[in-house]
Amino acid sequence: MEINFNTPALLFPAISLVMLAYTNRFLSLSNRIRSLHEKYQNHEQKHIIHGQIKNLRYRLKLIKNMQALGVITILGCIACMYFIYIQWPITANLIFAISLLFFVGSLTLSLIEIQLSTKALELELSDMEGLEDPSVVEYFKRKLGLDKE
Asked: Following CA atoms 108, 117, 135, 48 in sequence, which dihedral angle do they give, to the nearest 10 degrees?
């Protein structure tokens, strides 16, 4: 397959939007860390905060790596365009393929981070009683009044 300038250029808008989403995640996570730090200093709910801090540390590492892989993807696309320009198609194809793999890695880390953020919210809710999370089937049974057996 032969690629031209448009092929790697198509990834720029996608990568830019993904990087914006990663940055927003990072900002919200940093705000959460600051508020948890304040709670920790005031000795409020240390047992819950300890679990959240552990989760947040790991998520920060994931976001840092997600962003790094996204930047490497952009740099790879730029390098690919350069090699297309100097007419080295084999090198351009190889670099573009590697860039796509880095992008897949970045999105995979993003999926893992999303799963962890859900666990963090569950941990936050763990100290509230009577708020068990029903399964989807139980939820609809309750809404439709079918749970009375």
From this structure: 150
Residue 63, in any domain of the structure: yes
Counting the structural domains of the chain, the total is 1
What residues contact residue 64 under an 8 Å CB cut-off, 6+ apart? none
What are 65-97's pLDDT values in tens digits?
999 999 999 999 999 999 999 999 999 999 999
Give the Cα-Cα-Cα angle 44, 119, 128 (nearest 5 degrees): 45
> Is residue 56 included in any domain, yes or no?
yes
CA-CA distances (angstroms) from residue 127 to 48, 78, 123? Answer: 8, 49, 8
pTM beyond 0.85, yes or no: no
For residue 66, being part of any structural domain is answered with yes
Q: Does the residue 27 lie in any domain?
A: yes
**What is the domain extent for residue 91?**
6-127
The DSSP symbol for 45 reads S
What integer best gives the mean pLDDT of the chain?
Answer: 82
Q: How far, rounded to the nearest angstrom, does the alpha carbon of residue 116 sit from its chain's CA centroid?
A: 9
- The pair of three-digit structure tokens given for residue 64, joined into one six-digit string: 């840092």
Tell me the pLDDT tens digit for each residue of 16-37.
888 888 888 888 888 888 887 7
